[in-house]
Amino acid sequence: MSQPSPHERRGELEEQFVGYLDGELDAPNAHRVEEALAADPHVREEVWKLEQTWEMLDELPRTQVDESFTRSTVEMIAVRAEQELAQAAQLIPQRRRNAWLLSGTVVACAAIAGFLSVLVMEQRADERLLRDLPVIENFEQYREVGDIEFLRLLRERGFAQAEVKHGN
Amino acid sequence: MAQSDNAAESFELRDPDVRLMLEVRDDNAAAFEELMLRYQNRLVTVLEHLVSSRDQAEDLAQEVFLRVYRSRKRYVPGAKFSTWLFTIANNVAANARRSRSRRREVSLSVSDGSSSGGNQLDQLAQAASGLMPARQLDKAEMRDVVRMAIEGLNDRQRMAVLLSKFEDMSYADIAATMDMSPEAIKSLLSRARLNLKEVLEPYLERGHRPAAE
Model confidence over B162-200: pLDDT tens digits? Predict the structure, then answer.
């Protein structure tokens, strides 16, 4: 950590003096400035000049606007407010149109999505029917069997294969 | 969230102008007019010294009040009302200066470009020490000298000085108004006051405009 240069040190001191005059220093810093003021006539002169030149700014005039300023400002704001209301009113039909367009788009999307899901579901149903076709084709014969254990028994003994081949 | 609600309530309790602004938010036109009456002179004063033109200051003040009115529905007390108002004023003045400097750039680009460079404060100090007769300054002359000194500050220094001098704002409030840290404001005001001292000191010491060398 390097030491501050004399220029930086002077800048810090001047900030402290201005802060002191503005009542912005905490108690320890204010006390340090007061000690410097008591001990060093150059510091006293410097702070006095800062204070006096600051007070010279009191010579700057304070503006007093006349009644016409207030009136014209209020009128200007009233006119702008009316314009904004009129613009907002003009925008309402467009907003409604936009809302209808949006609703229409949502409904169309929903219809397309619904159609696609029905299509997919139908395809799945067809696929299941195709998968089950051998069973459906032999449904009457399977029903006549009645007991699945009996069928297993036949298969184990080789009858079922021969029967199916024979049936085809 | 609860913290910001507490802050808003705190400003509402402490600052009567915040309460008025909350009435403006509820479309109370009389409250808006009351706020205008309270602040119009203060606002035009700061703006006039900021832009060095009474007419432009009034135009800018109207713009500030218009922005206050337009943003009424979104208003949430987050600072003193004056801090919020002068934040808007600072932004409006900065925009005006930017567009003015753009116009100036255009006009300079078509002129012969023979402007003298150098430090404006040095020029002011020279004007103070060399060009004026040795005699006691009257009030009007003193005003001109002080105005000249203020105009010699850069924009940020000038705004900080005006808020401190005319609005009696703390460093924290100036910092909030100018979107800077209090430490930066301390440093800014220190440099500004040293610059003012440099220009005004000759008048302070002798009470008159120094003689030509």
Answer: 999 999 999 999 999 999 999 999 999 999 999 999 999
Query: Of the candidates B36, B139, B171, which has its C-beta nearest A24's C-beta?
Result: B171
Residue B208 phi, psi (nearest 5): -150, 170
Specify the number of domains making up chain A.
3
ipTM of the prediction greater than 0.90, yes or no? no
Q: Does A47 share its domain with A12?
A: yes
DSSP state of A158: T
Amino acid identity of residue A1, one-letter, is: M
Domain layout of chain B by residue ranges = 2-110, 120-206
Kindly state whether residues A114 and A127 are assigned to the same domain: yes
Asked if A24 is an interface residue toward chain B (Cβ–Cβ < 8 A), one would say yes
B171 and A62 in contact by Cβ < 8 A? no
Q: Is residue A73 part of a domain?
A: no
Give the tens place of pLDDT for each residue, B113-129: 444 444 555 555 555 55
The DSSP secondary structure of A95-138, one letter per residue, reads HHHHHHHHHHHHHHHHHHHHHHHHHHHHHHHHHHHHHTHHHHHT
* Nearest CA-CA partner of B43 in A59, A74, A65, A75: A65
Pick the CATH number of B120-206 from 1.10.10.60, 2.30.30.40, 1.10.10.10, 3.20.20.450: 1.10.10.10
B142 CB near a chain A CB, below 8 Å?
A: yes
Q: For the residues of B31-53, what is the DSSP string, one character each?
A: HHHHHHHHHHHHHHHHHHHHHT-
Query: CB of A163 within 8 Å of any CB in chain B?
Result: no
Architecture per CATH, domain B2-110, reads as Orthogonal Bundle (1.10)
B166 C-beta neighbours (distance < 10 Å), count: 17
Asked if residue A68 is part of any domain, the answer here is no
Which positions ≥6 away from B160 have C-beta within 8 Å?
Answer: B174, B178, B185, B188, B189, B192
Task: Map tokens 């409604």 to a residue.
Answer: A96
Range of the domain at A118: 100-131
**Chain A CA closest to residue B202:** A53
CA dihedral B22, B27, B28, B30 (to 10 degrees): 110
Residues A140 and A157 in one domain: yes
